[in-house]
User: Fold this.
Amino acid sequence: METRLSGFRVEGPWENVVSHGDAISQSLRALGASAHPRMKHEEYRQAVREWEEWRPRIAETLEEDVRPRTAKKASLVEGEGERRGRPPVEDLGNAGSALLAPSDYARVDASILARIVEASRLTTRAFDTSIRKAFRFVEESIYQNLMTRMAPCYFDNRVLSANIEQCTPRKDAYRFEVNINNDRLKEEVAKQLEKDEPHDAPAW
Assistant:
């Protein structure tokens, strides 16, 4: 491993890349949120979990696994309907039901206005979900098939940033660099990585 101003870098076969990512993960988990002065405990844990989901594994490849994950992370975030697991058709149906519910239509009272507002919200959410899904499909396809073939696979959140690329002309060698975005935490991670013994990380 080479320690640079821009981060911790390794070059070599895929096994080296995976080991480097694993060492970073164990260091972050062993240090915990207390080592980061600007993040709350749960924010830190979530950021580390995001990294864990992205980092390369031994049974994976750059092309078939890491690139698709990179493209997915770079695409448009999910809307409210998607996060709740509501398909657009269901929201549209519920919107209709909200408007057609039995009531006294002779006067526009608060309950009718509430149903109109709810129907409008569900309709908007349905269209939002459909548009986001269509846009994300195009976005991920473009990113995966074009952008990641012109540049390294890149990951970034509040805790760290990382990039991995295949070395040319060698196809069996990779360059993997990880930078910790907070100087204090970076110093602590560097100390952890310099230790010879395995890291003892708590179970999450």
About this structure: Confidence is low (pLDDT under 50) at residues 75-79, 104-108, 196-204. The chain has seven helices and five strands. The chain has two domains: 1-74+158-204, 77-141. Residues 76 and 136 are 6 Å apart (CA to CA).
